[in-house]
Specification:
lipoprotein; eight-stranded mixed β-sheet; ChaN family lipoprotein; Rossmann fold; 16% strand; Cofac_haem-bd_dom; 11 helices; 295 residues; signal; alpha/beta
C-alpha cells in the first residue's frame, strides 16, 4: 500500500508542478476568437493570410498591440510579397508624397519626421513598422483625413467641406459622405457628446467628423484593394470595433474584399474572454490591465 501511495504521489507531482507554474506565469497577452475561444498566433495568422484586408484595432498607448502589429506585418509581407501594403490612420493623406520619398531613400529621416506630422508616440510605437516597410520596400499608405478638414466638420458639419478645392478633396472620401447615426458606435458617441454640449448639433458634427475619418480610411484602403494589393491597416480600435466604422464604409463603397478585424482589450483575467468583449472583432488580443503604457 505504501509503495502504491508513493507511486501515485510521483505520478501527480509533475502535474501539480505544471499547475503551479501556470498559476505563476504572467503572459503579456492572449488571443481569442470573437466567440471567446482561445486561439494561438499561428492559427490566427493562417486565417489572416486569406483576407484581402486586415484591420488591426489598437489602443494607441498599448505596447503589446504595437509589437503584434509589427509581427503581423512581417508575416503577411512574407505571405504576400509584392502584393502587400501597410495602411495607417497615424498618417494623413496629404503627406503621402513625403512618405513615398522617405521609403525610397530620397529624404533623410529628420525631414520625414518633421514634415510627415507623425503622432507624438511615433518613435516608440510606429517607427518600427515604418522602418520594416522601408527595409522591405513595402508601401505605407497614409489613410487618414488631414486634421484641418476633420476640424472643419467638427465645427460646421460635413456641409463645410463643400467649398474645399478640388485638390483638397483628393485627401478625403468622395462627397457626399453618408452617416448612419443609428450604428451603435455613432449612436454611443451622440449620447456621450450630446450630454456634455449645448444642444445636439455639436455632437452631430463630432460624429460626422468621426464618420469622415472612417469613410476616408475605407476610401484609401479600397484603392489598394482595387490595385490588387493585400493590406494590413493600423487604426484605433473604435474605427473598426463591432464591424462598424471602416468596415461599414468599405461595404457602402461596394469594395468586394474579404475583411478581417483584430481588436485589443484590457482585462484583469486573461484566462477567458469577458462577455462584453465577445463579437467585437474576428480576433481579440487581451492584454493585462496592469500592462505598462507607452504614454
Amino acid at each position: 500500500m505504501e509503495k502504491l501511495l508513493l507511486l501515485l504521489s510521483l505520478l501527480f507531482l509533475p502535474m501539480a508542478a505544471t499547475v503551479m507554474a501556470q498559476q505563476k506565469d504572467k503572459p503579456a497577452y492572449r488571443l481569442f476568437t470573437k466567440e471567446g475561444k482561445a486561439v494561438d498566433y499561428g492559427n490566427m495568422l493562417a486565417t489572416l493570410q486569406k483576407a484581402q484586408v486586415v484591420l488591426f484595432g489598437e489602443q494607441h498607448n498599448d505596447p503589446i498591440a504595437h509589437w503584434l502589429q509589427l509581427e503581423v506585418a512581417k508575416d503577411l509581407h512574407q505571405a504576400h510579397q509584392g502584393k502587400f501594403a501597410i495602411g495607417a490612420e497615424m498618417f494623413e493623406a496629404d503627406v503621402q508624397l513625403v512618405i513615398n520619398e522617405y521609403l525610397a531613400g530620397q529624404v533623410p529621416e529628420s525631414n520625414f519626421e518633421q514634415e510627415a506630422r507623425p503622432w507624438p508616440n511615433y518613435k516608440t510605437d510606429y517607427k518600427p513598422v515604418v522602418l520594416f516597410a522601408k527595409e522591405q520596400k513595402v508601401p505605407v499608405v497614409a489613410t487618414n483625413v488631414p486634421r484641418r478638414y476633420a476640424a472643419m466638420v467638427a465645427g460646421g458639419g460635413l456641409a463645410a467641406l463643400g467649398n474645399v478645392s478640388g485638390i483638397g478633396k483628393a485627401f478625403f472620401a468622395p462627397l457626399p459622405v453618408v452617416v448612419d447615426t443609428e450604428l451603435p458606435g455613432y449612436k454611443n458617441m451622440l449620447s456621450m457628446f450630446g450630454s456634455s454640449t449645448h444642444g445636439t448639433t455639436k455632437a452631430e458634427n463630432i460624429v460626422q467628423a468621426q464618420a469622415l475619418k472612417d469613410a476616408t480610411m475605407a476610401h484609401f484602403i479600397g484603392q489598394q484593394v482595387q490595385a490588387g494589393n493585400r493590406m494590413l491597416h493600423l487604426n484605433g480600435a473604435y474605427h473598426s470595433d463591432n464591424f462598424e466604422g471602416i468596415g461599414w464604409y468599405l461595404k457602402q463603397a461596394q469594395i468586394k474584399a474579404d475583411v478581417l478585424t483584430i481588436t485589443t482589450v484590457l482585462q484583469d483575467d486573461l484566462n477567458k474572454l469577458e462577455k462584453e468583449h465577445q463579437q467585437k472583432a474576428d480576433f481579440i488580443v487581451v492584454v493585462p490591465s496592469s500592462m505598462t503604457r507607452t504614454f
